[in-house]
């Protein structure tokens, strides 16, 4: 099967420049700089119809258009290597096993969009990937693929590698810029958009590691070729990360548009230990928890959105029939509470409220109207949160209420966990649901006070 | 690490000064400077933070204000080994709680500390943890403890 980003990772010393170049590495950069104008590179990306792999699927070529018209120097490429969405690890594998592919992709993006400085911002916990990318950059400079007058073509570009220090929000496209500028990683209001006023106030192209790593093959083989690698109207290949209760967890680079059933059963070996599938998630913590009867969903941005959730980072998590969905939702709720940056109240308070409501469900002390409370709090957060974190944080929780209502009824009304996972010990959690906060949120949206 | 002999501390400050100087030549290196402080001192040692703040042309308070936003920085001395155990969904489904329990039982202030952390991007190796800078995954609780213990032993050999 055709592979693009993961084609070389099993080669011995795949991260070294010699291995990379023995397998066609930096050919695309040479081709672009010597045979193609920046516009021609841009045209191939347009033909590829690639959607960004950072989560939103925004058309890459269109994002590049914004840069071309933007005023201000220098212009920056910012490679988003913050990869912190639970269930997602594709960028890490590229960074560890094929860091030169990323370096080449960054250089191509800079050439095509007229940028002279590249930053790669990698999450602080990725020690090995940082080490490998750092070495790749040094090797690329030494061979003249970065720096002044690249390969004697007159094109010059600098590449800096920077580490984060533990904050999921710093993957958000404006928070990452504040972080790089040495500030706390709060998101910024948009507009101004990064393409006009981004890093250090200058025009900035921000793309994900996987988005950039596809560029060399698009340049070498053409955007049309890349696009045709997809199935079910999907464009190109996509790295699906599979984890949880499957036989073969891992990163699978497959045609965009592969169904969840094919991914989980044909590629990842199916549910582990011969168990049945109970629930699954298509795209990291920010996506919904879905029932088994939605397995034929086509895993591409549009079809997943049409089904009411997001493909996001395509971090697919599989849960077997012994899983309790309340317990699963609580893990995601705990993640968002921990990672909320605290800048705006719907998210800061809402993530806490959702987590505490679930804690009460799990203990068997939830109020009978808990499902309504979850629904209302979720809608408030989706509508009123300042950035994507708070807007998507309720999805794993509210989706379990909607998709698995019987489980909630059993917990809340029957005081019983059908899967036998939750403690259901009748103990009041140490902290109380902050009724006042919750009430304010509900009043704000529904004009409805809590009893 | 709190009670370093004077010459060890002096060497650490000198090494840090070189790292800070290198950082200061390039844009966007605030976090890298803080990482350098933590690398040399095991935590954000106040005098060292002051050196970084001076190089950045901001006050120490401002730099602490930045540092406290991020979870990887420590503000007090730590044991030589930190075990960061992921407790998010994919790891939870494959036994993160058992690992956490096993490690917490064995942790001691002079050997290692256990931290519950959010997804480490090692989900295909769940249950996963970081032992200092080493990624560890697909392990039973006792295997996880052995990995931690090995680093604790290595750190005391090095002293
Ligand atoms: C809370 C939050 C966290 C995000 N984290 C990441 C991340 O770690 N990596 C990433 O590439 N994009 C992340 N994104 C998406 C970025 O904002 C941005 O859309 C993306 O980097 C653009 O790259 P692309 O066009 O190549 O997809 C995050 C968004 C939000 C709202
Ligand atoms: S939605 Fe959450 S993460 Fe985003 S700005 Fe508000 S508090 Fe911060
Ligand atoms: S969920 Fe544990 S490493 Fe991702």
Give a short overview.
Chain A is α/β, with parallel strands linked by helices and 451 residues long. Chain A is built from 20 helices and 9 strands.
Can you give a write-up of this model?
By secondary structure, chain A is of the alpha/beta class. Chain A has helices at 17-22, 27-35, 38-48, 60-69, 90-97, 99-113, 127-142, 175-180, 209-213, 215-221, 223-227, 260-267, 301-306, 325-339, 345-363, 370-384, 388-392, 395-403, 405-412, 435-446, and strands at residues 76-81, 117-122, 158-163, 204-208, 237-244, 250-255, 277-281, 290-291, 315-320. A five-stranded mixed β-sheet of chain A has the order 6-5-9-7-8, with helices on both faces. In chain A, strands 3-2-1-4 form a four-stranded parallel β-sheet. The radius of gyration of chain A is 23 Å and the shape is globular. Chain B has helices at residues 6-24, 30-41, 46-56, 60-67, 89-92, 96-106, 141-157, and strands at 81-86, 112-117, 129-131, 134-136. Chain B starts with 5 loop residues before the first helix and ends with a helix. In chain B, helix 6 crosses helix 7. In chain B, 42% of the residues are buried. In chain B, a hairpin with a 2-residue loop joins strand 3 (129-131) and strand 4 (134-136). FE2/S2 (inorganic) cluster binds next to helix 5 of chain B. The site of iron/sulfur cluster has 14 residues of chain A, from helix 15 and helix 17.
């Amino acid at each position: 099967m055709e592979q693009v980003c993961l084609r070389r990772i099993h080669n011995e010393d795949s991260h070294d420049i010699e291995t990379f170049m023995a397998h066609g590495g930096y050919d695309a950069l040479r081709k672009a700089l010597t045979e193609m104008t920046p516009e021609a590179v841009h045209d191939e990306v347009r033909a590829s119809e690639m959607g960004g792999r950072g989560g939103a699927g925004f058309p890459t070529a269109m994002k590049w258009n914004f840069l071309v018209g933007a005023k201000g120097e220098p212009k920056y490429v910012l490679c988003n290597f913050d990869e912190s969405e639970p269930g997602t690890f594709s960028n890490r594998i590229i960074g560890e096993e094929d860091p030169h592919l990323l370096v080449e992709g960054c250089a191509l993006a800079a050439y095509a969009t007229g940028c002279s400085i590249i930053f790669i911002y990698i999450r602080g916990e990725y020690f090995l990937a940082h080490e490998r990318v750092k070495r790749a950059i040094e090797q690329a400079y030494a061979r003249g693929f970065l720096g002044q007058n690249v390969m004697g073509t007159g094109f010059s570009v600098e590449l800096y590698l920077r580490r984060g220090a533990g904050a999921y929000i710093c993957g958000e496209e404006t928070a990452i810029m504040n972080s790089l500028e040495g500030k706390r990683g709060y998101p910024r209001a948009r507009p101004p958009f990064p393409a006009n006023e981004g890093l250090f106030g200058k025009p900035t192209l921000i793309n994900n590691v996987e988005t950039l790593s596809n560029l060399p093959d698009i340049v070498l083989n053409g955007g049309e070729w890349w696009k045709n690698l997809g199935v079910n109207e999907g464009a190109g290949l996509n790295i699906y990360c599979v984890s949880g209760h499957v036989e073969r967890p891992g990163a699978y680079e497959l045609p965009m548009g592969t169904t969840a059933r094919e991914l989980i059963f044909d590629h990842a070996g199916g549910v582990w230990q011969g168990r049945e599938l109970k629930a699954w998630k298509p795209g990291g913590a920010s996506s919904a928890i879905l029932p088994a009867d939605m397995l034929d969903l086509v895993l591409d941005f549009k079809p997943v959105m049409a089904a009411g959730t997001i493909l996001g980072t395509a971090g697919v998590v599989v849960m077997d029939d012994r899983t309790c969905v309340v317990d699963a939702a609580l893990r995601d709720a705990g993640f968002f509470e921990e990672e909320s940056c605290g800048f705006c109240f719907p998210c800061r308070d809402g993530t806490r409220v959702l987590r505490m409501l679930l804690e009460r469900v799990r203990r068997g002390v939830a109020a009978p109207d808990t499902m309504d409370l979850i629904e209302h709090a979720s809608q408030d957060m989706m509508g009123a949160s300042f950035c994507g974190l708070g807007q998507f944080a309720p999805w794993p929780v509210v989706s379990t209420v909607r998709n698995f209502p019987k489980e909630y009824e059993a917990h809340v009304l029957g005081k019983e966990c059908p899967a036998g996972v939750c403690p259901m010990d009748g103990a009041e959690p140490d902290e109380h649901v902050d009724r006042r906060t919750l009430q304010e949120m509900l009043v704000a949206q529904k004009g409805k006070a809590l009893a | 690490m709190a009670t370093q002999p004077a010459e060890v501390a002096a060497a650490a400050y000198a090494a840090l000064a070189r790292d800070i100087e290198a950082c200061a030549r390039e844009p966007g290196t605030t976090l890298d400077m803080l990482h350098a402080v933590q690398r040399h001192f095991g935590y954000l040692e106040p005098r060292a933070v002051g050196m970084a703040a001076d190089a950045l042309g901001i006050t120490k308070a401002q730099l602490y204000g930045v540092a406290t936003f991020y979870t990887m920085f420590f503000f007090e001395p730590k044991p030589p080994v930190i075990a960061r155990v992921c407790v998010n969904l994919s790891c939870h489904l494959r036994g993160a709680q058992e690992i956490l329990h096993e490690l917490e039982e064995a942790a001691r202030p002079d050997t290692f500390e256990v931290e519950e952390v959010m997804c480490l991007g090692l989900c295909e190796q769940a249950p996963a943890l970081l032992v200092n800078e080493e990624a560890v995954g697909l392990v039973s609780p006792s295997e996880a403890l052995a990995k931690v213990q090995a680093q604790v032993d290595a750190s005391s050999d090095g002293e």
